[in-house]
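Async update (no meeting this week)

Hi team, since we skipped the sync, here's where things stand on the single-chain job. The sequence we agreed to prioritize is pasted below, unchanged from the tracker. I ran it this morning and attached the output directly underneath so nobody has to dig for it. Comments welcome in thread, and please keep replies under the output.
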Amino acid sequence: MSKIDAVSRGFIDRAPDPARYGGQTADPDESAGIVLSFVAPASRVLDVGCGIGSVSELLVKHKSVELIGLEPDADRAAMARQLNLNVINDFFTESVVRDLGMFDVVLFGDVLEHLVDPVAFMDLAKTVLKPGGVVIFSVPNVAHWTVRLSLLRGRFNYHAAGIMDATHLRWFTLKVCRDFCRRAGYEVLHHKVSAGSMMIEYQSTRPWRWMWMFPRERMVRRFARWWPTLFGLQHIIVARPKQC
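Output:
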């Protein structure tokens, strides 16, 4: 088990799969596709905590970005490099980014929820953003209906992946996201939620499991648009440093 995933010990029965968040697609209703919609073609992007490179690969393929990935886990970094991505196996620190130049986008894709001090990452991002540059981050929505229902039943069970991933240290709602950005010295420019139409709960719980897959997916996507704070799986935020 990697040092990063080791924080799950005692909360789940087996080590989480280090590649559990691979397989991202450009689906416009899901997290990676939404991130793509926020990134201008040919941008210079720093993908912090790029994992196995699933989102990074999409950015290079669909947006022709100049991308540098940072991934502290050696195994994940190696998998990302197999996709011909420029990935540095190291942490997001001042000494590491000092010689990387400036970026149009700093991306924290499902990263901030794993940190003890996520504001430190937002502060460091300011030092490598070009004028007009933005931070894009995605975080799981702890106010999702599945978590609310579990709490009503008196349950707060950790899992190997998803909103209740046992490696998560921070929890976000839309209000928390907005307040977090404000306190970190950022202004929120855009916000969207991912639908999460392939969540296991939609295949295993009533009444969802009784529906045909395609009508069910369409309904889930509509619900995420209509009630984003209840049905959105992740919050995806674009934020810009406030001007002094």
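Quick observations from my side:
The beta strands are 44-48, 66-70, 87-88, 103-109, 129-140, 186-193, 234-241.
The domain at 5-241 is CATH 3.40.50.150 (Rossmann fold).
Reply here if anything looks off.
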